[in-house]
């Protein structure tokens, strides 16, 4: 929009009068730190003002370069660590501006190379606010730590600040409203949640963000339609009971991405997702898929993607021996013989190794298949 507003006076007038043109708030922390002496957050404040009352999409980028090792390894690069600390230190000032306009948030995305900026942002998002509005227009939340390598390990890295205190995303829910039903969804328009390399207190998230009452059956239809859990270290993945509860709190779920995340044991109970149409499943060990599919009822699934991981990228549980073989023969045979998804039309396989006879058995067991 800045370019359009700089063409000439006529274009500038039109641009400044079109509030929706300024509704994408892209916050690049690298540029903010570089320009601190020449304005700092002034461009963000200008964008917020010019967006008027239109719904806004927020993208916060805390990136400096590609990550391919543990954060302990990256500490050897003092300039990198210093920059990440400065990114984290920027978060309070940024959210101080954004929280004032929370009622206009349509989507929130935070992308970081390391845990420190994400941790700082979550601390702010988990603080319950005593005044102001809630994120009633919020449709999408995406939190991403770009270093996939860390999910190869059982232990979370970095070891410090592993968990974030407070009620998950309490700031978005806002102050407790008087006269609002206790069974009303806390974020009524929330449709999409993606947690990529970012974990939460899963029980807290289930009860306070998704609105599932503890120790009670769910009686209110939830609005979540797309859920992604990707690249989590073994020790911070949700337990079978927590993950079962999360799925049960999303009965309208249509798209599920579970990529090297989720419980390392069988779901605690049968979970039925009657509206689920797309499932992408990335498994760390071959037993993961069988444990998930044996308790997942998705009769209307139309698109299934299976993604294997190379042996060097397996996430090992300290309490279970998953073996060394990456052959997916048993997983594919389980899918073929159980007729799990009778309406399946599209199948995608990434890095999935098995004998030709097993693939043939699987194809023959899916008469509705149209795309491979």
The oligomeric status of these chains comes to single chain
- In helices, the fraction of residues equals 25-40%
Secondary-structure content class: alpha/beta
Rg, Å, rounded: 22 Å
Quick one: biggest sheet?
A: 10 strands, parallel
The coarse overall form would be globular
Mean pLDDT: 83
**Uncertain stretches:** 177-182, 216-221, 312-325
- The N- to C-terminal Cα distance equals 42 Å
- Count up the helices: 12
SS elements, strand count: 12
- Which sequence of strands runs across the widest sheet? 1-2-3-4-5-6-7-9-11-12
Strand content: 15-25%
Order of helices and strands: HEHHEHHEHEHEHEHEEEHEEHEH
Brief write-up:
The protein has 372 residues and is of the alpha/beta class. It has 12 helices and 12 strands.
Summarize the structure in words.
This protein has twelve helices and twelve strands. With 372 residues, it is α/β, with parallel strands linked by helices. It has a ten-stranded parallel sheet with strand order 1-2-3-4-5-6-7-9-11-12. The longest helix is centred in the first third of the chain and has 22 residues.
Features:
single chain, 12 helices, 372 residues
């Amino acid at each position: 929009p800045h370019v359009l507003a700089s063409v000439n006076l006529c274009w500038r007038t039109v641009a400044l009068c079109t509030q929706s043109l300024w509704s994408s708030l892209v916050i690049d922390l690298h540029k903010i730190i570089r320009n601190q002496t020449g304005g700092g957050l002034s461009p963000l404040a200008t964008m917020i003002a010019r967006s008027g009352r239109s719904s806004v999409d927020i993208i916060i980028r805390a990136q400096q370069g590609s990550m391919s090792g543990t954060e302990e390894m990256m500490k050897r690069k003092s300039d990198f660590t210093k920059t990440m600390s400065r990114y984290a230190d920027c978060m309070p000032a940024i959210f101080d501006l954004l929280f004032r306009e929370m009622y206009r948030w349509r989507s929130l995305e935070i992308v970081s190379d390391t845990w420190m900026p994400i941790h700082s942002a979550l601390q702010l998002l988990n603080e319950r606010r005593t005044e102001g509005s809630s994120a009633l227009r919020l449709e999408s939340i995406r939190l991403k730590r770009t270093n996939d390598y860390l999910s190869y390990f059982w232990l979370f890295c970095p070891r410090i600040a592993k968990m974030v205190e407070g009620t998950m995303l309490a700031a978005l829910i806002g102050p407790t409203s008087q006269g609002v039903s206790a069974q009303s969804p806390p974020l009524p328009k929330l449709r999409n949640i993606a947690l990529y390399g970012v974990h939460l207190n899963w029980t807290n998230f289930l009860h306070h963000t998704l609105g599932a009452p503890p120790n009670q059956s769910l009686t209110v239809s939830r609005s979540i339609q797309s859920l992604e859990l990707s690249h989590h270290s073994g020790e911070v993945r949700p337990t079978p009971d927590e993950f079962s509860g999360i799925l049960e709190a999303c009965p309208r779920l249509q798209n599920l991405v579970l990529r090297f995340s989720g419980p390392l044991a069988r779901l605690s109970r049968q979970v039925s997702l009657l509206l689920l149409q797309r499932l992408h499943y990335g498994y760390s060990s071959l037993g993961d898929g069988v444990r998930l599919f044996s308790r997942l009822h998705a009769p209307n699934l139309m698109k299934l993607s299976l993604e294997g991981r190379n042996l060097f990228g397996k996430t090992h549980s300290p309490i279970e021996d998953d073996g060394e073989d990456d052959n997916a023969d048993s997983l594919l045979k389980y899918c073929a013989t159980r007729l799990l998804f009778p309406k399946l039309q599209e199948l995608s396989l990434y890095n999935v190794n098995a004998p030709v006879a097993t693939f043939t058995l699987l194809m023959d067991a899916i008469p509705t298949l149209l795309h491979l």
